[in-house]
Amino acid sequence: MTGQNRLVDRKRRVAITVEQCWHRVPGGTATAALAVISALADREDLDLIGVAARHGEDPPQAFRPTIETCHLPLPRLALYETWHGLRWPPVERVTGPVDVVHGTAIAVPASDAPLVMTINDLAFLADPLQATRHGNRFFRRGTELARRHAKLLLVPSEATAAECRAAGFDGDRLRIVPYGVNAQPVSESDIDGFRTSHGLTRPYVLFVGTVEPRKNLAAVVGGMAALVGRGIDLVLVGPDGWNEDLRARLAPLEGTGTEVHRLGFLSAPEVAAAYAGCVAFCYPSLREGFGLPVLEAMAQGAPVVTSAGTATAEVAGDVGLLVDPDDHVQIGEALVRLVDDSALAADLGERGQARAATYTWERTAALTAAAYGEVAP
Q1: How far is CA 263 from CA 32, 73, 240, 295, 333, in A?
Q2: Cβ–Cβ contacts within 10 Å for residue 267, how many?
């Protein structure tokens, strides 16, 4: 039977892990996984089934999988440990037979079917302090299992592909699958409503992301020093994460006249309005697998300041101001340029929207489906 006839006869059945949706901070890996799952579900050649640990309740609405999800009989910690230590239980125990298993995070599922793994980044190898001792052990074991068992590895950027090659992965098994963006329409009234509801009466620089060391919030605060006295505030969107004393991190701005608005986790429409209303989006992350916030900001026409030599620089291309993430003066100078030169800010915003439009989840789904076809023809 040829591959083409096989697809005519029946859909390719794929089990895909969604456990990160139940994590305390689901983060970008859950956001990306759910977006690509949604796009894959629209394809006529695939039959998707989600896989997760045992849970007594659904995840938050924003992170609820849109496909049927089967739950293995173990809670998360036990499931992750037995997957990595015993290679048990197989996902087929609850899904039935599948053609492919897709692990969308570092937890490597046990299965008899061909395995595809998504590796977003290997930041823990570059800086072990990014994770706890248990986290480092877990990540290292997952990386080794992915290297040993995965037929193909999907990475969202060349930066992550380079990390994988340096870590000993076979380059022939790597497939670069960039993420996409669904730009929500935002009107001036939406922006005004967002400002009013959060008490934003002045122009603001925006940061979006989980508060954790590699997001480099210290550099955002350091850059904001160049705008002191200009009546421009800092808005932080995203959940508290780990290994960061946010009060201490923001202390340098106290008494400067720069107000810091911590808005926490927001709905997708509010985040879109936050991007659309900012004078600049500042994201000098030290290390990213892709950098979805940069793409989301570009999609809303926000001028972007982000890190040179990283995955976010791949996303921004020539439509963002690229800076050394360790140079607070350089970051401040980039922010001042955008504030002082409205023509530059508008040009970067317009070209950013055009570039963002080329990053679609449909393309992500097509490349992912092609990988499934390689391992299960």
Answers
A1: 22, 37, 10, 20, 26
A2: 10
| φ and ψ of 43, to 5 deg | -80, 145
Burial 98-117 (b: 16+ CB within 10 A, else e): bbbbbbbbbbbbbbebbbbb
Domains of the chain by start residue, with CATH: 3-180+360-375 (3.40.50.2000), 188-356 (3.40.50.2000)
Kindly tell me the burial class for residue 175, based on how many C-beta atoms sit within 10 Å of its own C-beta (0-12, 13-18, 19 or more).
middle
Q: Which pairing describes strands 260-264 and 100-103: parallel, antiparallel, or unpaired?
A: unpaired
Does this model's pTM top 0.85? My answer is: yes
Going by pLDDT thresholds of 50, 70 and 90, the confidence category of residue 271 is very high
**Is residue 6 pLDDT above 60, yes or no?**
no
Helix (H) or strand (E) holding 48: strand 46-52
Structure tokens at 312: 């976010």
State the amino acid at position 54 in one-letter form.
R
Q: How is residue 66 written in tokens?
A: 């849109």
Cis amide leading into 239 (omega within 30): no
Alpha helices of the chain — where are they, by DSSP H? 3-9, 27-41, 76-86, 92-95, 123-126, 133-149, 158-166, 188-197, 217-224, 246-250, 268-277, 292-299, 311-316, 328-340, 342-356, 361-375
Mean pLDDT of 66-86: 97
Query: Tokens representing 281?
Result: 């989006």
- Bridge partners (DSSP) of residue 264 are 237
* 292/178 Cα distance (integer angstroms): 10
Residues 107, 80: contact at Cβ < 8 Å?
yes
**Segment 59-73, tens digit of pLDDT:** 999 999 999 999 999
- Cβ(364)–Cβ(175) under 8 Å? no
- Give the pair of three-digit tokens for residue 27: 């983060």
Read off the pLDDT of residues 163-177 as tens digits, 9 standing for 90 and up: 999 999 999 999 999
Residue owning tokens 């055009």: 354
Give yes or no for a contact between 94 and 72, defined as CB atoms under 8 angstroms apart.
Answer: yes
